[in-house]
Amino acid sequence: MEIIGYCLSVLIGFSLGLIGGGGSILTVPVLVFFFDIEPAMATTYSLFVVGLAAIAGSINHYRMHNISYKTVLLFGIPSVIILFIMRHWLLKMMPSIIFRSDKFVVTKSSFILAMFAALMLIAGWTMIRQRTYAPSKEKQSFTRLILQGAITGAVTGFIGIGGGFIIVPSLVLFAGLSMKKAIGTSLVIITVNCIVGLLGNIETTVSIDYAFLFIFSACAIAGIILGTQATRVIPDKRLKPAFGWIILLMSLIVFARLFK
Predict the structure, then answer these.
(1) What count of other Cβ atoms lies within 10 Å of the Cβ of residue 257?
(2) C-alpha dist (Å) from residue 38 to 32, 46, 133, 194, 233
(3) 97 has which bridge partners?
């Protein structure tokens, strides 16, 4: 199972490099189901792995001129602020048992995974259904980008992920970026989000298995380099639905494991 998990870590990086998201969506289930890491700790591991991989991907996309710096600032700053608030204060206030009855118990960990899967389902379906789009500078308004950034920060802070599966659709559908520019911009924002997310949960880092984490991250970085190079030859119109189908499939897998 661990060998399969390490192979999947390469796929995690490849997903980040190819579609600018999906890294945490893949990382959390892989860590939980293949390495028996508790879901709450898996979100911290995920921030570390995805953050390192996103740095490598950001460097490649910088060289390819696929980063919108205006979007990074207007979208990224409110996203980071809200994410820090969620991770540092609000998430810690949640009880370990959300709901209890005679038939079943909803724990904090299972609730996080369920929300995770539901948001994946919505994001994936949106990207598949809205197949046609055109980049538009008119959508890159000050207010729109700040609002979308704040919403994304709230979601990523609660679930404990880098946020690419929400950032990329937001940048494409609401900020008017081309798919490839949304990917590069997403990776920069994900890098910052992961760093802030870790700082907001710094006390859990003392129990991290760093030897395992660096091996897992190295595999993910190898994957993101391959994925970034693949964007050079794959057109935007194919990247968008591919992103949606990957996320949709992963949401169904998480739901199946939750309710088995």
Answers:
(1) 13
(2) 6, 12, 39, 19, 38
(3) 107
In angstroms, the CA 153 to CA 140 distance is 18
Q: Which domain holds residue 112?
A: 2-258
Residue pair 192/153 in contact (Cβ under 8 Å)? The answer is no
pLDDT in tens, the chain (260 residues): 788 888 888 988 887 887 776 676 678 778 888 888 887 788 788 888 888 888 988 998 898 888 988 888 888 888 888 877 876 777 777 777 877 877 777 777 777 778 777 877 877 777 777 655 555 565 567 787 888 888 877 877 776 565 676 787 778 777 778 878 888 898 898 888 778 777 766 666 667 888 898 999 999 999 988 988 887 887 767 776 777 787 787 778 777 777 76
Give yes or no for a contact between 47 and 194, defined as CB atoms under 8 angstroms apart: yes
Q: How many domains does the chain have?
A: 1
Q: Can you give the pTM of this predicted structure? A: 0.73
**Helix crossing, 142-159 with 108-129: angle to 10°?**
140
